[in-house]
Amino acid sequence: MRPFTEKTAFLLLFLTAFSWMTKAHAQAFEYPEYSDSTIKISVAFSGSRPTIVDFATAYLDFAQKEHEFFGQVNKEWKKHLQKKPLSKNCSILTDVKNGYMCYQKDHFNESDTIIMEMCFWNCADGKQKLVAANTIWKMDGDYGWDEYIGTRFFVYNNKKKEMRPVFSDDIGALYDGDGLSVFFLPRKGKNIQVSAAGSGERWNEVLEWDGFKFSSKEIE
Fold first, then answer.
1. Which of 41, 45, 53 shows the shortest CA–CA distance to 81?
2. Are the C-beta atoms of residues 163 and 152 closer than 8 Å to each other?
3. Which DSSP helix (H) or strand (E) runs through 26?
4. Using CA atoms in the order 32, 34, 37, 42, what is the torsion angle rounded to 10 degrees?
5. Global pTM?
6. pLDDT in tens, 165-190
């Protein structure tokens, strides 16, 4: 048996402290509740946990009531799930393994493309997930804006099997730059890429995921 040295004792103390700090961090963050928000979106699924298919189905069923664009996406999504042909110039990618989906509609005559993508993150406490729905309008090398363009975030409660909205500024998912910030959700990895619209400027920045929220970071 190896002798119990001061070095061994220090290592055990460090590992214990690290474990305690990790657990404390996982239990420390609570997403805010909003008194004026009554939105609760139930997520139906089979199996032990929901997939991106379940989150996308729940969100689109909800969002189609808010804007006709999401109604159009939802119609194509239902076709996709039923393995039916999509409308002309429409495509949908579903990556269940990486928790990502993407709808795309090309308008070749106008040289623009509408993209709606979704992904989710498992929170560090193992009790929640953060779900994002993001819509991008690419316009001839730049980005456009409309009322349905942008990113929405939802907190999913594993026990209640429902998700509710959370504001971007409460999870660090805002980027303070000139012009319109444009987010690109991760298909692989956990960080959100950030760019800009209006001047053609592109930033080498990401919003880095820490297990509950984000912080801006420049890519070296």
1. 53
2. no
3. helix 6-28
4. 30
5. 0.85
6. 999 999 999 876 556 788 999 999 99
DSSP type of residue 17: H
CA dihedral over 98, 139, 154, 189, signed as positive or negative: positive
Which residue type sits at 214?
Answer: F
Residue 144 burial (C-beta neighbours within 10 Å; 0-12, 13-18, 19+): middle
Over range 67-73, report the average pLDDT. 97
Tokens linked to 27? 């239990």
**Position 74, amino acid:** N
Which pair of tokens denotes residue 11?
């290592």
pLDDT digits (tens, 9 = 90+) for 83-132: 999 999 999 999 999 999 999 999 877 789 999 999 999 999 999 999 99
3-state secondary structure of 153: strand
- Cα gap 15→130, rounded to integer Å: 29
What b/e readout covers 4-28, taking b as 16+ CB neighbours within 10 angstroms? Answer: eeeeeeeeeeeeeeeeeeeeeeeee
CA 85, chain centre distance (Å): 27
Altogether, the residues listed in the chain come to a count of 220
- Angle, helices 52-63/68-81, rounded to nearest 10 degrees: 140
